[in-house]
Amino acid sequence: MRYVGRITDWNDDRGFGFVTPNGGGDRAFVHIHAFERRSSRPTSGQLISYEPQKDERGRLKATAIRAVVLQPERNQSSRKSGLRKPIAVVFFAVLAAGWLLGKVPPVVLLAYAALSVVAFAMYGMDKSAARNNHWRTPESNLHIVALLGGWPGALLAQDVFHHKSKKTEFQSVFWTTVGLNCMALVWLLASRKANAVQTMLDALMGS
């Protein structure tokens, strides 16, 4: 039966140490010659699999040792990375359809488009600043423009520039701003406030 554990107290000069099995249990003696395949020297903390055996004195030793290579797990932001462009495209498609059907005033569509361009540019400049050690755009500014309606452009920028897409804390706040903005948009359209704003703008442009 094979066990999995981590090497402890490794003495590299003498080529031995111990392994403590995951989940608890007696630790076993590890010798460098007991590795079946070894591309590099063992180190303390290294994860290995092994078969425990007792020597002639009844001491536990690890045999048939193999290094365990863990596959990196894709975190939540990585799983979302493939959805960023589709989400932005679908959102604008819905807005455009609503405009064609007379449900969404043009001012709303234009506002989201303009703010998305601003957000995309801000992400691009911040990415460039990060590479060149220049003055960075505060994250709060990126969140504000997303909250105001630039989040579709921010999604595209995160995907294109690979910027801020893996920072968990940033992503948590970002998706909160997306949710708040969408709720505000639903309220704006349901209460017909957007129509009132459009009428006002039309009057100003016509005067």
Automatic annotation (TrEMBL):
Keyword Nucleus in record: no
Domain of life according to the entry: Bacteria
TM regions (residue ranges): 83-101, 107-124, 144-161, 173-190
Keyword Nucleotide-binding: no
Keywords (A to Z) from UniProt: Membrane, Phosphoprotein, Transmembrane, Transmembrane helix
Pfam family, any one: DUF1294
Domain CSD residues, every copy: 2-67
GO terms of biological process kind: regulation of mRNA stability
Single GO cellular component term: cytosol
One function term, GO molecular function aspect: mRNA 3'-UTR binding
InterPro entries: Ca-reg_mRNA-binding_domain (IPR052069), CSD (IPR011129), CSP_DNA-bd (IPR002059), DUF1294 (IPR010718), NA-bd_OB-fold (IPR012340)
Protein name per the record: DUF1294 domain-containing protein
Native species: Rhodanobacter glycinis
Origin organism lineage: Bacteria, Pseudomonadati, Pseudomonadota, Gammaproteobacteria, Lysobacterales
